[in-house]
Hints:
By secondary structure, the protein is of the alpha/beta class. It has helices spanning 6-15, 47-64, 82-91, 102-111, 113-118, 155-165, 186-191, 193-196, 205-215, 230-237, 249-255, and strands at 72-76, 94-99, 123-127, 140-146, 166-178, 218-224, 260-267. α2 packs across α3 (82-91). The longest helix has 18 residues, at 47-64.
Amino acid sequence: MEPESDAQAQRDLMYGQFDLGSLSIFSGSFINFGYWGDLEPDREITAEERVESHAELYRQVATSLEPEPGDRLLELGCGLGVGTALVASEYDVLVSGMDRSATQLERALTINAEAIEALGGALSFVQGSVTDLSWGDASVDGVYAVEVLQHVDDLAAVAREVYRVLRPGGRFATATFFAPDGAEAAPVAELLETVASGADVIRPVGEFAADLTAAGFADVAVESIGEHVWRQLDRWIAQTEFRVSWARNWLRCYENGLIDYYLVTARR
Length: 268
């Protein structure tokens, strides 16, 4: 497991006892900012549209793996597992969802009980660490993470472990928020409570791309997808109890070039 720290203890609380997925800022048992299509102005976003944004972010990540039917995939930080189930069912692949939190995995098993039975072994969940994977060398065809790596203190270790467990030609993909290369760091902590506390770590995206290259990956690609995330997310936040909180500063950080949302891919 990752070395313990005050920040890690806070993350464990957020996803365990606190149950982040129960907050109105999220929905449908997903926990991510979403990948949004165009929205008509001057109207409220529906709960169904919010859930679809969650699901579409998973599709963007899973599609970038270029999976073939029957491939074995590993999801890092699966949380409540509904995205894991979506990938297993929509892409005809075998997916193991891994999470650090035993409490989250208990919830995942309950929430996805019908899917686990229906998919007949194609969907499973296991506890583990993203920096010390229990999978054998060259044992999976693809590894992905959806809005997880901002909670990990040692991304270079993640890159090395993912490279190790991937088969030659296997692909890695992740979607989360990073700093654009060259952006100032200090103002983000002043604006975002989770960054100030250390629960979220905002690194330059080029730094993680370099970690992947150093681990041995080829075809490392970084794509900004912020235009599909931040403004639409802020509109949703404005409909929740977080509408007058620090959560509105995500958009402010994006508009000031301090953070962005990225899809990062690589091939072993």
